[in-house]
Amino acid sequence: MRRTFFIKNLLLFLIPIMIPILILGTLSIYVARVYLKEEMARNHMQMFYQLERDISVIYNELDHLNISFTNPDIIYNVGQILSSNGISYENSKLISMIEHTINAPVLTKPYIQSVYLYMNNKEGNFFSSYEGLSRIDNFPDTQWYDKYKSGELTEEVAIETRKINRYTFEAPIDVTTLYSGIYSFNGKQNGVIVLNLYNSYIEEMLNTYLHYNDQHLLVLDNQSRIMFNSDKAFAPDPSVLKASLAIGGEQKGEEAKIVQMGNRSYFAFHWTSNELNLHFISYIPQTSTFQLSSTLTRLIIGFVSLSFVLGLMLTYYLTRKNIRHIRNIITLIKANETDEPVHSVPQQEGYDEYSFIIQRILNNFIAQKNLTVENISNQYKLKTAELIALQNQINPHFLFNTLETLYWKVLSFTGKPNEANHMIGDLSDILKYSLDPGSEVMPMEKELSVTQNYIRIQKMRYKKMFDIYFDYDEEVHAYGVLKFLFQPLIENSIYHGIKESGRHCCIKIKILKKEHHMSISVIDNGIGMSFAKLKSVREKIKEEQESGEHIGLSNICKRLELTYGQSDLMRVLSKPGWGTVISIRIPLE
To answer: What is the pLDDT of residues 354-364, one digit of tens each?
Structure first.
């Protein structure tokens, strides 16, 4: 019967929860995939259109150069200059104009590597943006000249990718070269304009168009050769490129096809630019494209698993409901055998007579048990407080009697008061002040008096190592100050500033009353601290646990915060070789 009841409750909870999750999840995945495909197609349409415009702007630089050198007079004069062995004064201005014309785009356009201007001449002269008027025999890049002389440049504008060695000590540079012919009056080709473009610039530009993880963008010429690649390590097989070029066409970048490369599947988008005679192909991994739908699938599986686990838990809870009260009673009875307090029984949901009776009995038992434990605890705390009070009464009397005995014992050795007697007297006053059961805030006059006792003890120890000066007005005596405020500050100056300096130093204590607070500064001209050490001291002061050096400063910082309810009342400033300043701000209101 228990098994039947368990299965019935399990189905009762799981079916209403899991069926809506499965339906909603399936619809969400389907809608997400459709939306992602449409969004991806729109993005590629915009990307290909913008890419065509940007590359067109780059290629148009050749048209600008062509326009500059199509004037018949300029063609004739350039030919005369290149054919002559010398340069006349009349030609020098024209040479300067030509050099400026071919240098201007190289200097202003980061994607242009160099420009050459050649017209047929027996001397092998031509203009380059590198060196101006140059000779083929002495120029490191002659591949373009060989191609021109071979007669291969029959098209109006020819394009090829190649490498240029500008200097022998430099690595080759990948460039795309654009050729434009210069024609004479009879239509015969009489020269060529060569425009070299940086492949790296265009490939970096391609990377700016990538919007998906692990996306790759390629630019191919009309012979299906890769000209530009956003990732040179990505090299599709020729069969993959052929299949990609069969997708869509001009103005059809929204069409996509799945291609297989290795063990990964890619969405391939293709765009043909008739204006530039180029093909644009984009590859996007399916895993990156449908990342959202994959995430939704994982979430749905997680929700279904969570629902199943929750259903099991709820079913188990309902099945064991009738024996839970008995287990609580057994637990409470066992707990009664110890002196530990018993936790209250949580209020049960729902209402029935059985639950109500058991709940009231258990709560009454728990209340009685906890009262007994609390009574025992209070008695223990009372005895502990009485023992501490008795001990506090004994310790001060013992210490005062011991100091008095030491005082007279030392006096008996010399027959008159000496430094030891003075030190014992000052120490007795300090001890009496520390054991004063009064408030944490003491009058300034009393605190300064006890501070003088401490200073006398330290000066007896360190002789003439330091002097202390006070700078304050009598009116500050009327205000309260934190108990034992000055002693740790002076001790810090002596031990960490003056003692390590090895020279006579000074400590100045300055107290100044302002409108809403009292400013206290302890200044020494000791060894000081570096910036790193000062930073470490400031961090140690603010630590919760007091450990290591500067315990007194940390203690004062915490006492100030607890007494006045404000933080950052103490500041530490220091400079190597100059000394240290500890300033404290005491609120007066």
So the answer is: 566 666 766 77
Contacts of 503 (CB under 8 A, 6+ apart): none
CA distance linking residue 62 with residue 542, whole number of Å: 69
**Predicted confidence (pLDDT) per residue in 485-494, tens digit:** 898 899 888 8
Token representation of residue 150: 């071979």
Beta bridge partners of 408: none
Phi, psi of 548 (to 5 degrees): 75, -150
Report the half-sphere exposure of 57 (CA within 13 A, side-chain side).
Answer: 10
Predicted confidence (pLDDT) per residue in 6-51, tens digit = 676 667 767 777 777 778 777 777 777 777 777 788 888 888 889 8
Residue 87 confidence class, pLDDT cut points 50, 70, 90: low
3-state secondary structure of 165: coil
Q: Which amino acid is at 147?
A: K
Question: Is there a contact between 202 and 61 (Cβ–Cβ < 8 Å)?
Answer: no
Residue 471 confidence (pLDDT): 92
Radius of gyration of the CA atoms of the chain, in A = 47
Backbone angles phi, psi at 520, to 5 degrees: -120, 130
Q: What pLDDT is recorded for position 187? A: 73
Q: Is-contact 284 265, C-beta < 8 A?
A: no
Return the amino acid letter for 251: Q
CATH fold of 1-319 reads Beta-Lactamase (3.30.450)
SS3 160: strand
d(CA 52, CA 57): 9
- Whether the CB-CB separation of 250 and 273 falls below 8 Å is answered with yes
Average pLDDT, rounded, for the chain: 79
**At residue 174, what are phi and psi to the nearest 5 degrees?**
-75, 125
Concatenating the DSSP letter of every residue in 292-305 gives HHHHHHHHHHHHHH
Contact 256, 247 (CB under 8 A): yes
Higher pLDDT residue, 309 or 393?
309
Q: What mean pLDDT is predicted for residues 425-444?
A: 76
Q: Would you give the DSSP letter of residue 346?
A: P
d(CA 115, CA 125) in angstroms, rounded, equals 14
Q: In this structure, which topology does domain 417-587 adopt according to CATH? A: Heat Shock Protein 90 (3.30.565)
Is-same-fold flag (1-319; 417-587)? no
Q: Are 435 and 483 in contact (CB under 8 A)?
A: no
For 370, counting Cβ atoms within 10 Å of its Cβ (0-12 exposed, 13-18 middle, 19+ buried), the class is middle
What DSSP element (H or E) covers 188? none
Where residue 528 falls (left for φ over 0; alpha for ψ -120 to 50; beta otherwise) is left
Tell me, rounded to whole angstroms, the distance of Cα 129 from its chain centroid: 46
Q: Are 526 and 506 in contact (CB under 8 A)?
A: no
CA distance 227 to 400: 98
The pTM of this model reads 0.47
* Residue 33: Cβ within 10 Å count: 15
Q: Residues 242-263: what's their mean pLDDT? A: 72
Domain ranges of the chain: 1-319, 321-390, 417-587
